[in-house]
Amino acid sequence: MTNVAQTLPVPNAVGELYDRLTLSAMNDGTFNPNVHIGYWDTPESDASIDEAMDRLTDVFIERLKVNASSHVLDLGCGVGGPGLRVVAKTGARVTGISISEEQIKTANRLSAEAGVADRAVFQHGDAMRLPFPDKSFDAVMALESMCHMPDRQQVLSEVCRVLVPGGRLVLTDVFDRFPRKDVRPQGVDKFCRDLMSTMADIDDYVPMLHRSGLRLREILDVTEQTTLRLSYELAKVPVADERPAALNEGNFEFSDEAFKPSDLEGVDDFGCLLATAERP
């Protein structure tokens, strides 16, 4: 069986990639405040991609168990869409961090436009070294950001440090589903290369959480509800509209075409997990 070595993401390079993706989306009219996968509750769901993206944020909200007195850290906040939805639906305060300066600028603009700049603040920061004191947050959400972290264990330890006792972490991550194929699907390699990501091993998650001082509450394989369905939906989108132009620009040198989400159509070993944990 082929074992593909994974190149660890470099935070500054990830930030530069998302700077370019953000600017590209704003310039070409494809900007979306939700930069993440969707969630379809059932195979029969006819939710649009945008509706499914909001639904995934709602799945997080249900598990975060926060209210208007809570302070939530959005770890890898993107351009702020999920964090703003948390504010709107729960009244909680949200602090978001991203390694991308352009994402932070955009998120703070959207927060001001929504009239919640006092409740949703976004700042540049590295999840590997969170710039916050111990026990600063009632909950932490990491929506599709863990795959960009060079050391998941270190990030989880930082999350535990900044959570109050009883505080919750909710995250998604991509992982290699079993049984693995003899040859890894090309779409997975392109995803990891072009989006500077690594695939987790789901069997490592429980010990990682425990070593970090967190107690597991739930871990689910949500591949069918998320990545597998999203790739199916995006396969209907014309290729020219689907691939961000920023992946074909700048200093990136690809041996073949850049990653597009429909490259993962039908790749059922490209898994997505949903985990909930708390600090005892």
Order of helices and strands: HHEHEHEEHEHHEHHE
Shape, principal axes of CA atoms: globular
Radius of gyration: 18 Å
Uncertain segments are 245-255
The N- to C-terminal Cα distance equals: 40 Å
Can you give the helix content as a percent range? Answer: 25-40%
Q: In DSSP terms, counting alpha (H) and pi (I) runs of 4 or more, how many helices?
A: 9
- Measured by DSSP, the beta-strand proportion falls in 15-25%
Could you give the order of strands across the largest sheet? Answer: 3-2-1-4-5-7-6
Mean pLDDT: 91
The named CATH superfamily: Vaccinia Virus protein VP39
For this structure, what is the CATH class? Alpha Beta
As for the number of domains, it is: 1
CATH topology: Rossmann fold
Total DSSP E strands: 7
Brief description of this entry?
The protein is an alpha/beta fold. The protein has helices at 11-28, 49-64, 81-90, 101-113, 152-162, 186-194, 202-211, 227-234, 239-242; strands at residues 71-75, 93-98, 120-124, 137-142, 163-176, 215-221, 270-278.
Describe the structure.
With 280 residues, this protein is an alpha/beta fold. It has one domain: Vaccinia Virus protein VP39 (Rossmann fold), CATH 3.40.50.150. The chain is 35% helix and 19% strand. The protein has nine helices and seven strands; from the N terminus they run H-H-E-H-E-H-E-E-H-E-H-H-E-H-H-E. It has helices spanning 11-28, 49-64, 81-90, 101-113, 152-162, 186-194, 202-211, 227-234, 239-242; strands spanning 71-75, 93-98, 120-124, 137-142, 163-176, 215-221, 270-278. A seven-stranded mixed sheet has the order 3-2-1-4-5-7-6, sandwiched between helices. Helix 4 (101-113) links the parallel strand 2 (93-98) and strand 3. The radius of gyration is 18 Å and the shape is globular.
